[in-house]
Specification:
By secondary structure, the chain is α/β, with parallel strands linked by helices. It has nine helices and 16 strands.
């Protein structure tokens, strides 16, 4: 019998959810989203737990979402992700202890202030029959995770798990048959652009090899447009969507000259994000055994902005496209809501059981 799971992304400006039925494969049953008042979540951390709890309670009630089997995502540079190797240990308890010891060596987070999780990715045996496990290690500050879990608890939600948004992003954008032959393999680079932050994740086709949270989001475009055209934030957001980064659309109330001025302001603001992406990808490719980069796949609400992918491609110098959040799921016959790139992370969260 299929298990229903709700993937929930708690962003700086929106709550976004995806309800899936999972039983070997994943079927998307519902998507929902709602604005979140500014300041409740900022910088990837919960600033007002009671306000977030109240918003969640109302969100789940209005959208008739189940309150159990909820999986939430977190994205913050106070989370450490590493791949390590542990040799000669078979006992699960001893393996856990060994991983905790290694975590203290490779991650700059005190273990007594952290929550730790790990997954064995692969195992090999050398000529002397010594087994070596390749382990994906994730460590996060306990107070960071507690802000989210406390808000969910106060809202009456029963969590099934807490995941990294980077993992969910890759999970949703990787087709079930996407693993290429070894000689043809290249890195999948996925970028989810939120309101105030963006998540970059790089996969080798099997696991997340590199992730980074960038302090840049769609609000940077809105603010730049507001300054250039002397608009209030709400008006700038509306004009941004209508104006887009490419094309000749003329939003209501703008002269052709001001439209050109506004579009140039958007392109100028995007340059800093392009530089961040290039810097992050150069850092990844400086790591041992890194793969070549074939393309960047975009997700998140800002990815819906017309012309964004083409302009980033011009800035970064590699192919950029908007990802398909439905590549790994089937659609339920009674699907409620219309999925788009903003639902990528919630869908990926719901796929993990």
């Amino acid at each position: 019998m299929a298990k229903q799971v709700v993937g929930l992304k708690l962003g700086a400006s929106r709550l976004t959810a995806a309800r899936l039925a999972v039983n070997g494969s994943a079927e998307l049953l519902q998507v929902a989203e709602s604005p979140l008042p500014s300041g409740i979540i900022a910088g990837g951390e919960v600033r007002d737990v009671p306000a977030l709890a109240a918003a969640l309670k109302d969100f789940f009630k209005r959208n008739r979402l189940p309150r159990r089997n909820i999986r939430i995502g977190v994205a913050n540079n106070r989370i450490g992700v590493r791949t390590i190797e542990v040799a000669g240990i078979e006992d699960p308890k001893q393996l856990t202890n060994a991983v905790r010891l290694r975590a203290q060596e490779v991650l700059p987070i005190p273990i007594d202030e952290a929550v730790l999780d790990f997954q064995v990715l692969s195992e090999s045996v050398d000529a002397e029959a010594v087994a070596t496990k390749r382990v994906l290690l994730v460590v996060a500050y306990r107070d960071l995770v507690a802000g989210y879990t406390d808000a969910c608890s106060q809202a009456g939600l029963r969590l099934a798990g807490v995941d990294l948004e980077a993992f969910a992003l890759l999970r949703a954008l990787t087709a079930p048959d996407a693993v290429a032959p070894a000689l043809e393999r290249s890195a999948l680079v996925a970028v989810s652009i939120g309101a105030d932050r963006s998540v970059l994740a790089v996969s080798d086709g099997f696991t997340c090899e590199f992730t980074r949270v960038l302090d840049w989001g769609g609000n940077a475009l809105t603010n730049a447009l507001g300054r250039a055209l002397e608009l209030e934030i709400d008006d700038a957001e509306r004009v941004k969507i209508e104006l887009a980064l490419q094309g000749d659309e003329l939003p209501q109330g703008l002269t052709p000259e001001r439209a050109v001025q506004g579009r140039e302001a958007l392109k100028l603001a995007l340059q800093s994000f392009g530089r961040e992406l290039v810097s992050s990808l150069q850092f990844y490719q400086g790591q041992p055994d890194s793969l070549g980069i074939r393309e960047i796949v975009l997700a998140g609400g800002t990815a819906r902005l017309t012309g964004l992918a083409a302009e980033l491609q011009r800035l970064v110098g590699v192919s950029v496209r908007v990802g398909d959040p439905l590549v790994g799921v089937s659609l339920g016959k009674k699907l409620k809501g219309t999925p788009d790139p903003s639902h990528t992370v919630p869908i990926g969260l719901g796929m993990a059981v």
